Amino acid sequence: METNPQISHKGHVVGISEGKALVSIASVSACASCSVKGQCSASDMQEKTIEARLDGQELRVGQEVEVFFDQSLGFRALLLGYLYPFGLLMAVLLVALAVTDDEIFSGVLAMASLLPYYLGLKLSGKRLGETFQFSVRKTSREGFKSSLS
Questions:
Q1: What is the pTM of this model?
Q2: 75: which of 101, 115, 121, 135 is 20 to 30 A away, CA to CA?
Q3: How far apart are CA 139 and CA 25, in angstroms?
Q4: Residue 13: partners with Cβ closer than 8 Å, 6 or more residues away
Q5: pLDDT at 146
Q6: How large is the angle between the packed helices 103-112 and 84-100, nearest 10 degrees?
Q7: Radius of gyration of the chain (CA)
Q8: Which one has a higher pLDDT value, 106 or 143?
């Protein structure tokens, strides 16, 4: 039986409530691990908190865990958040430009067409939230200290 590839990050539990765990992970840019990052202002490292399903597991605050997300859902999120709106923007821009021959009006109309799209995403947030969920699993180490503390 083949499993779906997953995107995962290690973190630690900062809170637990109603079958969900709040997990703090270190979000590191590609340059944050570079050996010359002190010479450059491009490096960036932030701590982010993610809500993940417990799926019946017993976890405690401070415990090291791994949060994961199916890679196929990551691609779906990419489509909904970037590729579909870009396609909509370009389609509206090209059609409006062909019909009106007014570049400013076409550009404003194309940008305005994104408002109902993103409003629709916002209104379907509960349904999307049920689809796009992180899960959590214990790691082998028991304790974990944040690298940013």
A1: 0.61
A2: 115
A3: 14
A4: 21, 22, 23, 24, 59, 60, 61, 62, 63, 65, 136
A5: 45
A6: 150
A7: 21
A8: 106
**In the predicted model, is pLDDT for residue 147 greater than 80?**
no
Nearest Cα to Cα of residue 10 among 52, 77, 58, 65: 65
Tokens 């404003």, residue located: 108
Question: Per-residue pLDDT tens for 97-112?
Answer: 999 999 999 999 999 9
- Classify burial at 32, counting beta carbons within 10 Å of its beta carbon; exposed 0-12, middle 13-18, buried 19 or more: middle
Pairwise CA distance, residues 4 & 71, whole Å: 7
Residue tagged 């010359």 (tokens): 36
Structure tokens at 23: 């997990």
Domains and CATH numbers, the chain: 6-32+42-143 (2.40.50)
How far, rounded to the nearest angstrom, does the alpha carbon of residue 12 sit from its chain's CA centroid? Answer: 18
Is 91 within 8 Å of 114 (Cβ atoms)? Answer: no
Task: Give the pLDDT confidence of 3-34 residue by residue, as tens digits.
Answer: 677 777 788 888 888 878 888 887 665 565 66
For the chain, the residue count is 149
